[in-house]
Design brief:
Number of helices: 7
Bound molecules: iron/sulfur cluster
Number of strands: 15
CATH topology of the largest domain: TIM Barrel
Number of domains: 2
Strand order of the largest sheet: 2-3-5-6-7-8
Structural class: alpha/beta
Strand content: 15-25%
Radius of gyration: 20 Å
CATH class of the largest domain: Alpha Beta
CATH superfamily of the largest domain: Aldolase class I
Distance between the termini: 31 Å
Shape: globular
């Protein structure tokens, strides 16, 4: 398991610019909030190679609560303090964050925030945590349940202790006994859980998921360069995925093809980017990146992920070329 680094205690770096942690602004009224990179599961389809069985990561990160909330509030000011959704969606599982309840509370208390949502596989959810999160102001849980069959659920999570029965019980508890809305968001792994998807839809409808938002958000398994891919599984084409969703919509009379509008997401002014693509920049190297071969560099109030940076020394200042600028995330290569 890679070492856990605290931001900013171990790595003093801004919370804008790096995909692994901090705040991500993709130009809408939804802000992604990433307090942790840790995950208790090792799902065989994980697009971010998370969990104890990771092979590509070299560091995990935990962000200081106040530092994260300060950054979040600054970003909200730029975007306009109205109708903001704070979406806690990490490259791991948000429930590994030791201050998750305080984080939800701090986000919910921020002027302009109307929705606080969280994406989780639920392995760490307990009745007590759910109650605390409800009290703190959590509006919605996007809960990934990829199989109801016990054995298959364990196989997909690659975690022998993964207990789908407990998680479905918690899901039902959220839907029936709390004000938190529940959206069940299975990852469809073709040829492995095809038969589970209709059962999961039936389950979501039976327990009353989706009071304010849709009850289901079925996710297409995507193959990422640095993610995990189950042997022999080929990702579905978008055409086939949407065609299958359409058939299931007709069968179960439920909306499954979703758009940002279903969640009240609209375009909104972006935090300005201090870099352009191919620009040369001097960066201070402050720590390792989350993936092997990477370092973190700092310039102009942003964290840049330096790739091909094995030889770059932490503590040095180096020239880099910015090779990726997208959604306020920066990738750079040493010159
Ligand atoms: S898919 Fe989610 S829960 Fe599974 S290992 Fe990856 S980050 Fe963790």
């Amino acid at each position: 398991m890679p070492p856990i680094l605290k931001v900013p205690d171990d790595v003093e770096t801004p919370l804008l610019g790096c995909i692994a942690f901090g705040v991500i602004d993709r130009g809408t009224n939804l802000l992604q909030v990433r307090p942790t990179t840790l995950c208790p599961l090792s799902c065989i389809f994980c697009s971010v190679d998370s969990g104890p069985k990771t092979s590509r990561r070299q560091a995990e990160f935990l962000v200081d609560l106040n530092y994260l909330l300060e950054t979040f509030k600054e970003v909200v000011k730029v975007k306009g303090a109205h109708n903001i959704e704070a979406h806690i969606d990490t490259v791991g599982d948000p429930l590994t964050y030791p201050h998750i309840v305080d984080l939800v509370q701090g986000l919910a208390d921020t002027q302009g925030v109307e929705v606080v949502s969280m994406q989780t596989h639920g392995a760490l959810l307990t009745e007590r945590t759910v109650e605390e999160l409800e009290e703190a102001g959590l509006s919605r849980v996007n809960l990934s349940i990829d199989a109801l069959d016990e054995e298959l659920a364990r196989k997909l999570s690659d975690t022998p202790s993964y207990d789908i029965e407990r998680i479905t019980w918690i899901a039902e508890y959220i839907a029936k006994s709390t004000n938190i809305d529940l959206l069940i968001s299975p990852v469809w792994v073709p040829s492995l859980n095809d038969g589970e998807i209709p059962k999961i839809i039936e389950f979501a409808l039976k327990i009353g998921a989706g009071k304010r938002w849709p009850p289901l958000g079925i996710q297409k398994m995507e193959v990422h360069k640095y993610g995990r891919k189950p042997k022999g599984v080929k990702a579905m084409t978008w055409y086939r995925f949407y065609r299958s969703l359409k058939e299931l919509e007709a069968r179960f009379k439920v909306k499954l093809i979703l758009s940002p509008r279903d969640f009240g997401i609209h375009k909104r002014v972006k935090v300005p980017s201090p870099f352009r693509r191919f620009e040369k920049v001097r960066v201070r190297v402050v720590g390792p990146g989350w993936l092997k071969g990477e370092k973190l560099g700092v310039a102009k109030g942003r964290t840049l992920t330096l790739v091909d940076a094995d030889q770059v020394k932490i503590g040095s200042t180096v020239s880099v070329t910015v090779i990726g600028v997208k959604d306020g995330l920066y990738i750079a290569r040493p010159v």
